[in-house]
Amino acid sequence: MRDFEQDSRLPIGHVELSARRGVAPDVDVGAKLFVAGAQVEATWRVVRGRWSWAVAPSLAAARTANTPATVDAIHAFAGVAGIASRPLSRRWSVSVGPLAGWGLFWPRTGGHAQGLWLGAFAGAEARLGARWRVAPELSVYRVVAGEVPIAGAAVQLGAAVRYDL
After folding, report:
1. Do the domain assignments include residue 138?
2. Containing domain of residue 133, as a range?
3. Cα–Cα distances in Å, from 136 out to 17, 24, 40, 116, 157?
4. Please, are residues 121 and 139 in contact by the beta-carbon 8 Å criterion?
5. Quick one: how many helices (H) and strands (E) in the chain?
6. What is the pLDDT of residues 93-146, one digit of tens each?
7. Is 2 part of any domain?
């Protein structure tokens, strides 16, 4: 993460535990738990074809404690991704799309800050047998108004290991 205002670059890592469930042929819902909070999300596939197109809104909330690296605060986020995905083979698929979001930082000491960001992502997924999958993803975004989650831009690299139930 790069914060232009503080002229700092800070590598950050975290682990998430997530679950997703299909509720209709083209709709699934999910939840993620992470150290400081939780997120709920949905994915609605709007077009099936060589490329599948989907919309994926999400809501997240987190609470941080007063530590040397964080302050006692509530964090709230709303986001949406447009997802274009395509299978390359029986084993591999790719996904790309735009990202947009809004964030709120509300410290216990008073005041608040907000931010609006725009970005994009690209990812791949590999099937490893009948139930296991590995999915690396790269996303980039820039805060275009405000200063939440940062005053600047971020590049995120992640990898998911999935098991289909």
Report:
1. yes
2. 15-63+72-163
3. 16, 26, 21, 25, 7
4. yes
5. 0, 11
6. 999 999 999 999 999 999 999 999 999 999 999 999 999 999 999 999 999 999
7. no
pTM, two decimal places: 0.86
Domain harbouring 94, CATH code = 2.40.160
Q: Are 65 and 77 in contact (CB under 8 A)?
A: no
CA pair distance 66, 47, nearest whole angstrom: 46
> Under a CB-based contact definition with an 8 Å cutoff, are residues 90 and 126 in contact?
no
Residue 12 tokens read as: 């950050």
Identify whether 7 is part of a domain: no
Sheet holding 152-163, edge to edge: 8-9, 2-3, 152-163, 132-146, 113-128, 92-107, 73-87, 52-64, 37-47, 27-34, 16-24
Kindly state whether residue 10 falls inside one of the protein's structural domains. no
Q: Is 81 within 8 Å of 99 (Cβ atoms)?
A: yes
